[in-house]
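User: Fold this; tokens only.

Assistant: Input:
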Amino acid sequence: MKSFFILPTAFAALSFLSGGLFLDGQEIDFEKQIAPIFAEHCAHCHGEDDQESGLRLDRRGQMLKGGDYGQPTIVPGKPEKSYLLEVVNHTDEGMEMPPDEDKIPAAEIELLTRWISEGANWPGQMQAVETVKSDHWSFQSVVRPPVPKTKFANPVDAFLVKKLATENLKFSPPADAVSLIRRASIVLTGIAPTPEQVSSFTKEFKSNPDAAYENLVDRLLASPHFGERWAQHGSPLKTSKYHIRLYEKLFKTPDLASLSLDGGFSDSSSRPRSGQSFGKLDRIVAPGVDCIGGPNARLASGR
């Protein structure tokens, strides 16, 4: 009976060694060692007929680009950055490959790792490049169009009047001083102007309309109410079930601080989510909704 198992065991050992796991001096042979792995475990979902997640594993260029998840499937020479190895090692929870199956044999994972480390050589496809083809505007090259020749000095007005002309439309009549200050005040701060502000602006507008309007906008942008008005649209607080109570303290949030103090995009996007990790700063810092924790939580001030 012992001799019955000796031959199969010997063949299995030879087969294992021929896979290249212990043949460190030899370069991986794609056709003999890697292609069969893809054919057995991957082709039915990521081959010529079906491309789940927008990924094909029968084209090297596609693997370099990656699928819908935005990560390259392989990075030649860098197995630690190759998403393929994450999914076959089952280290990315929920993305284990093959799905609903055990991991592929360790010897095959080792072959894939060595293949990527050696540069992911793929005979006949080393120069292949996958290009994105789409008519969506975000994939198109930015081209500066020529400004239409009109009587308007502002390029924006020139484009607008050209488009209006195609629809047989014209600009609305210029707004008067009262309408301008009401529109600007409500849009920028959410608060209507006082009678005194309207009277003052109207007088200034009569002498120099352009300067008066520019000064008005500058004043409104410098108002703390501008931060209160616009921070509500991007503040993480609005997604919390405690947002009504917390909104009363909005003046302490980093969204408002960044807007009102001209902190720029970097401040507005990073500080609400970082909480107090920046330490004591020269501007207001407070934790975002993920750090709040409940209705009794305190909003930190980092003055």
